[in-house]
Amino acid sequence: MSVVYIENIADYEEKEVTLKGWLYNKRSSKKLHFLQFRDGTGIIQVIVSRDDTGEEMFAIAESLTQESSFIVTGIVKKDSRSKIGFEIHASSIESVQMIEYDADDPQKQGYPITPKEHGTAFLMENRHLWLRSRQQWAILRIRHSVIRAIRDFFDNRGFILFDTPILTPAACEGTSTLFEVDYYDKKAYLTQSGQLYAEAGAIAFGKVYCFGPTFRAEKSKTRRHLTEFWMVEPEVAYITLKEDMELAEQFVAYIVKYILETRTPELEILERDISKLQSATELPYPRVHYNDALKMIEEAGDKIEWDKLNWGDDFGSPHETYIAGQFDKPVFIHRFPVITKSFYMQPDPEDDKYSMSMDLLAPEGYGEIIGGSQRVHDHDLLMKRIKDHNLPLDSFQWYLDLRKYGSVPHAGFGLGVERFVTWICGIPHIRQTIPFPRMLDRIYP
RNA sequence: UCCUCGGUAGCUCAAUCGGUAGAGCAGGUGGCUGUUAACCACCGUGUUGGGGGUUCAAGUCCCUCCCGAGGAGCCA
Questions:
Q1: Whether residue A69 sits in one domain with residue A180
Q2: Cβ of residue A175 lies below 7 Å from strand B
Q3: Domain range for A158
Q4: pLDDT tens, position by position, A379-413
């Protein structure tokens, strides 16, 4: 007899197997118990019949409460009534830990998350348990596959994984959005991007990617923000903005395709409209110049309530949502005015009012999932930009060195994993795409 | 930081003009051989977020603090 997982159950039809897991839900009648049994890889229905198992086993099944842990042995039966095509006809049940209920004992109140409706505040307080629920399970399995696809994409193309530091000595774009930590009586900061370090990697290895947690102390309180999130940032030597956008769209299309091929059951649990993802596998994505995007917004006039934009303004999220809504696949906006963008972005050789920068907006109002640019490679220009932005020059000596010794045009971008997963899953809030979200006003559990 | 909405039973919510707190679910008991958020019957549950005020009377009105949700700005 084998100990097996539900995800492999089809290999054991008509065989006797042992499953180890937990009770997801239960329905009963006089002679039958229907146990919804989960083992982490899936959910299967276990049929416990009084006639087959005898009184003793039947009583154990009867007493099982939600999320109690137990081990079940039985025959795998094909059954068209099952959602996964199979069920288990139990021959024996062994309780591992029974969750007790006693109305008078505050320590024995049963499993808090019942199969009924709950508010998100309550569920977030119980995030450590909420993870067991079917939807959360589906989302985090998709997250896993997104991360795997990210790694496969770059690894298959000869990129080197280049880990950048989490503790950094100085802000790369001003200190206001950084978490400060004490570093042996000196100030240090949690990284908000590995990009500057990845640039050193790109010159050393040709093409690299860094992939790690990122911290932003912005007091953002929206469904698109986490204070701690995961970002993957490729950086490539000898490419310009054009190749950067091509890399970005191939990258996104690859991940979407991988998810569609490997995670349909999870997308079904989430009731995701897959047709909206399919279009994102078809290249190229539209490219809209900043000026044309501005024009689109002007032409939309006051059909939508938003702030009036002047040339040089960055887009607010209502503007981004509108532009993304005009296309059925992700859309690039490129060449933002230099004045709105970071110091390291290369000016457009054809018109230096514009930067060689781009954002990739996800469809359906999911907002910016990628931001990238070609970087300044001229030493003197970069130094001037650092000074103009009032940044501490000595913190950037090493960064300037990269422009002193064999400088070449180079470019890269960053993709926020959780925003990406939010879009793939078609869910309303980013907080469900990471096991334990860190947000303004939330650091528990 | 600003704007809006909310906090009532373990959970989700209701409570008319200010008039003495009530449903569903979860839990328990019983019933049912195939249930899919199973169903049917019966049973218990309260510092109405904290503090202060107005009033004969406050879940309801006023002040204040705390907590939560959504949005803006900023960003991935």
A1: no
A2: no
A3: 129-433
A4: 999 999 998 888 888 889 999 999 999 999 999 99
